[in-house]
Design brief:
By secondary structure, the protein is α+β, with helices and mostly antiparallel strands. The chain is 45% helix and 25% strand. A hairpin with a 2-residue loop joins β5 and β6.
């Protein structure tokens, strides 16, 4: 499942990327020598209108081989095209990868899918934040935002992102009563670590259905109808996870729960406490789908939200407030396999995120990538037509290629070590 899901998604993303290069090159009448999916050795090929279309044995990539990529005086060669045409051809692959998620997200939102019903609980409220000024408090359960029912934290985060710099009407549940909350403005550029509203949230699905009077759980402070949020800092989404976490923990730990509108932390000093004396219940799931117009709107909002998140992450990296985290093919394949278990909708959303990352990665000014080649064309434009010699450019790309392979190898080794360490 993991390998098939990963290779399937990768094939689609690479195919779309190379089709971008291919289509714009054809538009500018550049002769395409070969359109290849995967890297040689070649498994299968056919020729159509002077272009070889090949399927190759190494699946991690693809290529469009054009006439005169280094230097050529032949008609229809890449090197004879104007700098602006070459820029368009080189950028087209990444442009396609950045546009593809709109359609992937659209599919994810339009296909009927099951969504866990949860209680979205406010765990913290930042001082002087829009949330505090509006009257939100710890322990509030978010019921609706702008009239839309909140079933999970993703619902809430998406609605917050779609209302940046605007006011927002919320309905929260507090002590079994509903209360209307008006937030004058959702911040687009909040202080570091606060978020647009200034809250931290958690999801709860598991209730303690029955805590017998006189039981050890009652003595610890548990009561029937308590909503379990976390066990030892880990979120709990069903009764099976709750029991498994309690049975597998060998050290003293803590359970975070919601009672009414009060958050409580209950320490468990005896990790071997018997859980047989309590019973639990789990909230159900709903079937959700969107019409084609709503799904289109949501897909664009999702794409905007991701770009906004990437912008904040890059800003944090430049400020030194966060560390760069990288995953290689093995790490991405493992995540893809895990996501695939959640259904086609999650897989489409993940494919969209990967496509965005692939598009941005290829635009980075790294030799051997599209971005590296774009730098040379920009240098030509800035210098008034002066071009680096094909030999020097080829050498730089060769060094960049092997450096990139070395980096991927190191990241892959780290991925394998982490997977083995967590097994």
């Amino acid at each position: 499942m993991t390998i098939l899901a990963f290779l399937g998604i990768l094939t689609i993303l690479v195919l779309v990327h190379e089709l971008g290069h291919f289509s714009i090159a054809k538009l500018f009448k550049v002769k395409i020598i070969e359109f290849g999916l995967g890297y040689p050795p070649r498994l299968f090929s056919f020729t159509f209108k002077e272009t070889v279309y090949s399927l190759n044995s190494l699946p991690l990539g693809g290529f469009v081989r054009m006439l005169g990529e280094e230097e050529s005086s032949e008609q229809g060669s890449f090197s004879r095209k104007s700098p602006w045409q070459r820029l368009a051809i080189l950028s087209a692959g990444s442009a396609m990868n950045l546009l593809l998620p709109i359609f992937l997200f659209w599919g994810a939102f339009i296909i009927p899918h099951s969504v866990h019903e949860t209680k979205v609980v406010i765990l913290e409220v930042a001082a002087n934040s829009p949330a505090e000024k509006a009257g939100l408090a710890k322990g509030d359960i978010v019921s609706t935002v702008e009239g839309d029912t909140i079933f999970n934290s993703n619902d809430l985060l998406n609605l917050i992102q779609s209302n940046l710099n605007a006011s927002s009407d919320w309905v929260i549940e507090r002590n079994d009563s509903l209360k209307e909350i008006y937030i004058p403005e959702i911040r687009e550029n909040p202080p570091e670590g606060e978020g647009s509203i200034g809250i931290k949230i958690g999801n709860g699905r598991v209730y303690l259905e029955n805590v017998p009077p006189g039981s050890s759980f009652e003595a610890l402070g548990f009561r029937s109808s308590d909503l379990i949020l976390q066990v030892n800092g880990v979120r709990v989404f069903d009764s099976g996870e709750f029991y498994e976490l309690m049975e597998s923990t060998t050290e003293p730990y803590e359970i975070l729960l919601l009672r009414g509108s009060t958050l409580k932390k209950i320490p468990i000093t005896d990790p071997h406490i018997s859980i047989e004396e309590i019973s639990t219940s789990t909230l159900g799931s709903i079937k959700r789908s969107n019409n084609i117009f709503k799904a289109a709107e949501m897909s664009i909002e999702q794409l905007t939200s991701i770009f906004s998140l990437i912008g904040r992450e890059v800003s944090s990296l430049l400020k030194g407030t966060t560390q760069l985290q990288l995953a290689g093919p093995v790490g991405i394949a493992k995540i893809t396999g895990d996501v695939a278990k959640s259904g086609i909708n999650s897989l489409l959303l993940w494919a969209g995120i990967l496509s965005i990352n692939l598009g941005i990665l290829n635009l980075l000014p790294i030799p051997a990538l599209d971005g590296g080649r774009i730098v040379f064309v920009l240098f030509e434009l800035i210098s008034g037509g002066k071009r680096l010699s094909p030999q020097h450019e080829k050498l730089i790309h060769l060094v960049g290629f092997f450096s990139l392979i070395g980096l991927i190898f190191m990241i892959t080794v780290n991925d394998i070590q982490q997977i083995i360490g967590s097994a």
